[in-house]
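Figure S7 source data.
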Amino acid sequence: MSVLLLGGTAEARALAEVLVGQGIDVVSSLAGVIEGPRMPPGQVRVGGFGGADGLADYLREHAVEAVVDATHPFAARISGNAAAACTATSTALMRLERPSWAERPDASDWCWVDDLAAARIAAGERGRRIFLAVGRQGLAELADWTEPAIVARVVEPPAVALPANWQLLCARGPFPVAEERALFAAHRIEVLVAKDSGGPTTAKLDAAAELGVAVVMVRRPPAPDGVAAVASVAEAERWLAQCARPR
Ligand code: NAP
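Tokens for the predicted NAP complex:
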């Protein structure tokens, strides 16, 4: 059984590890946007496919039988391309999507917004000392925000120049909650702006709740229509096992 695993997430790496351990023919695919990505075990290809058509060509050329889209919930383009390419080639597709943070008990206290432009307005209404955890690409959209004091954390620095009122922290999580609490306290953070990436890495949210820091949360973009989804590596593994069974 030949599997293409669209990755760039911890879940994708975990699934790759399981499948490689089972001797399944799996190729992990990374976008190649981060310079020093954490590499999954097994075969890896790097770089875009050239849109949905390019991905469909890849599926045909490599006789891929099943695709697992384990990309980040905010990586909407590749997920849309995967849906279109799998439909065009009649390839089985499953989305592995970490659970949203919307189910957290404190999520109803947060200000939920649709995009970063709305997040900026909502954050400005809630405080003057802002912590941005919106990823490197997100920073580019906000880089003309010169008024409040901004601390932004990213894994790798953005390509754009940032205003003088910004402090950039380059670090790769996960971070312990005590560290997040100390960081927010040291910078006297009043508002946390984050994207609903979801999953188990919640230390910044826990620290914000403990310190009474307001949270502005960007909602996920809609997932492509008609694509089945699972929330865990174990469920994705079971789905692949079913795909592999002779019919
Ligand atoms: P995106 O907007 O959906 O994708 C932009 C383009 O990058 C896609 O059209 C595709 O190019 C290529 N691409 C994306 N993921 C790919 C993959 N796994 N393998 C091969 N090509 C891929 O995605 P993004 O937001 O730029 O994110 C890029 C990658 O970083 C994703 O794989 C995602 O899992 C990971 N990531 C994203 C975030 C986030 O907040 N967005 C956070 C953590 C990790 P072609 O059209 O040419 O095929």
